[in-house]
Amino acid sequence: MLHNKSFVKKTKSGKITKNVREHYLRDDIYCGVTICKVCDSSAARLSGSASSPILVLDTNVVLNQIDLLENPAIDDVVVLSIVLQEVRNRNLGVYNRIRALCSNSARKFFVFSNEHHKDTFVQDMAGESKNDRNDRAIRVAAQWYKSHLGGAAHVLLITNDRENKRKATEEGIPAETIEAYVKSLDRRDLLDLLVRPASEDVNMEEVEDLRPSKRKVIYAEHKPLSEITSGLHQGIYHQGKLRVNRYNPFEAYVGSESIGDEIIIYGRGNMNRAFDGDIVAVELLPQDQWHEENSLSLADEEDEEEGVHLVPGSADDAPRTTNLVQSAAGPPRPSGQVVGIIKRNWHSYCGSLEPMPMPAGDGGVAHALFVSKDRRIPKIRIQTRQLGNLLSKRIVVTVDSWDCLSRYPSGHYVRTIGEIGDRDTESEVVLIENDIDARPFSSQVLACLPPLPWSVSSEDLANPIRQDLRHLLVFSVDPPGCKDIDDALHCAALSNGNFEVGVHIADVTNFVHPSTPLDDEAAQRGTSVYLVERRIDMLPKPLTEDICSLRADVERLAFSVIWEMTPEAEIISTRYTKSIIKSCAALSYIEAQARMDDSRLADPLTTDLRNMNTLAKIMRHRRIERGALTLASAEVKFQIDTETHDPLDIGMYQIREANQMVEEFMLAANVAVAEKILKHYPLCSLLRRHPTPTKEMLEPLLRTAASVGLDLDISTSKALADSLDRAVGEDPYFNKLIRILATRCMTQAVYFCSGDLTLPEYHHYGLAAPLYTHFTSPIRRYADVIVHRLLSASLGIYKLPAIFQDRPQLTSIADNLNYRHRNAQMASRASVELHTLIYFRKRPTDTEARIVKIRSNGFIVFVPKFGIEGPVYLTERSEKGGGEWFVDEQQQKIKRMDGSISYGVLQKVNIHMEVVEPQPNRPKLQLNLV
């Protein structure tokens, strides 16, 4: 049956055009209920038993109650196509979650195409809003289910819309609110999952007395979006992402392109209910209220309740500092206040409930405060009927609203993770907080894998696209214990005196085909995640550790980049080929280094290693001469007990020549592949860029360097690299510390689609390379999988998948890869912090540290031996006898007013490290001056 839908549209030139679309209606769309006598029930998902009604959900229930819907107690659910469409338009995150429920074979969720069924399609009515039309369509579908199933099953419309519920009742459709339905299940724990309307918010201080007259305004009202938009255009407001200081939750920054600097947001009142990661509109404060860098302090756990009582500008609206005097040196930094939220970054948070006495009586609703593990997140008010069970647990809570009359945001309980302090529980918290998907791979994903045991077949050997390189002396060099080996090397001396050097990368795309469940899962995960005690794979283990892993003494499929190089590392030619290799050795960095250093060894493998290392040193020197930066990071290495998984030892990760050798050839392969794919596909190549840091970003580094007598030239990456090379002192660790500080001033390297930017914007600042991409780790990075497909197509091996014609989709993929890559980094750091706590809990330690940042009430130190950073307080909390302190920002010093003690940036100090718990369930590593 054909139905024409017409609508009017305004063109860019202002003309009004009428569009007519054909809309096909069918009579063969089934209801999805197993007991139905009319429909084909072979693909039915809903049981429709008399004891369990079939639920038809309206849009707002899906949008607001997704945590409840994900609970297994909610089943036999009809999700209408019109509801799905509306959810997709309004919240993509919720849409993805409801789609996942509908595709989960273990759940009874059924998508019914009501917009294409001849009996449930509704035509537009004159004067009817789109929202009213959608509500009517939902009621028509519920009515159809009721009459279609007759008395065989009970159909219930679930809606929190009073008007929709009233009309449904008048039309003879059974309808309930979600809360009424949950109460009928007699599952008190499910009531905790309910999101309550913002109008039901109550102030925790007023739980005993809820009279409206008692409530007072705590925060300023947010400006309406129309006023914000106008203010942004006029330059009154400034837009940016709010980032809260990890050492002080009362201090945040908003990077503003409109003023070319960061705006400091100081105090909870000025933050005005904004969360870390929110996109906000900021109004600058009068200049006499701007803060100097040195006036910003470190906040301790005892400050937790400060700065939340009054509207911005109050005397209480900041954490306290004690006995401090600041100098007036240094210009004040732009400071502002949040006037509106443009885009919320609310998600699920992990933590525990603030300890409180159990209320009298049994099982009533208790009001509790949730304390996130992340100090940047304010406390969240929740209601719970299971207080006794939750006080000793790590739980997940979601924010629902934050009223300007409420000191804290309101949220609801989602689920319990486990016992507080249990290592597995705390590791799970790390994954949830960083949105890492650690679920087992689904049966659909695993079905895409070739059967085991797998080996190179005769068809592979006979394939003309693949070159047989099994005769080459190929080897891999990786961290000790590495099982997911995705790169190998060879270096063969040629008769003309040159070298043939090859980088061989696991041919993952031979097994991961476009648009399969395996490919979709890898694209969503984006990257493997490396925690201290475990690895969360992007691809299933049969691929990562067996089929694709370039292990020793087995034949494997590879994608190879092969150069002919002179002894001076000049490239004569480059070729790319699919290949078959057989690695002769899987070496660790330590083993490879030991071979190169042992003068007694002269076997072919050691000779190739030495030749390759010689070439790598030349390449590295040439790259640095071009302006590549040699930066440093505080990578920590743990020795883990194989049985208990507890840390036995901790220290800085050591970089050897063998590491640098492998890195040099991986960089060269990535550059070569970037040039090849961009030449063939200038509009749809996936590349990686590193934007040049602004002068403002490098300002902290310049200030620190100047305070110790260093003059750093930041005019180009080459100038900065040369300056860093000259930054040496008597302290052997001095140069590395300067490089670590430089690393922290850099922008983030990101993936992008070549068609989205101009050629100068492709530049990679850190590598001083005009073009760069990721090709060498397809087992652990999805970006490399995309690049392998581009390279295959550029060589005429395979046709380029259709998705490469869809630039917006490619941009979306790049954005997800950047998000996943960043989250993986944050999860790795959080895992290090967790195991650091576990290690030092039983091992209080005295050690040496270096001061890296001066603040008004103390400084932040870096501990070289352990790769740890943290605050040290110079207040009455840490200094016997107190005394006033003076901050000299120009000299980066903090000294006592009587001149008896002073501390400067990069100075050595002796500290005592121990784990303390100033707030219940929130242990931290405390650093005190010895």
UniProtKB/TrEMBL annotation:
Keyword Magnesium: yes
Cofactor: Mg(2+)
GO molecular function, one term: 3'-5'-RNA exonuclease activity
BP-aspect Gene Ontology terms: nuclear mRNA surveillance of mRNA 3'-end processing; rRNA catabolic process; rRNA processing
Keywords of this entry: Exonuclease, Exosome, Hydrolase, Magnesium, Nuclease, Nucleus, RNA-binding, rRNA processing
InterPro entries: Dis3_CSD2 (IPR041505), NA-bd_OB-fold (IPR012340), PIN-like_dom_sf (IPR029060), PIN_dom (IPR002716), RNase_II/R (IPR001900), RNase_II/R_CS (IPR022966), RNR_Ribonuclease (IPR050180), Rrp44_CSD1 (IPR033771)
Nuclease in keyword set: yes
Pfam families: OB_Dis3, PIN_4, RNB, Rrp44_CSD1, Rrp44_S1
CC per GO annotation: cytoplasmic exosome (RNase complex); nuclear exosome (RNase complex)
Cleaved signal peptide residues: none
Region annotation (Disordered) ranges: 295-336
PIN domain residues: 53-166
Family: Belongs to the RNR ribonuclease family.
Name of the featured protein: Exosome complex exonuclease RRP44 homolog A
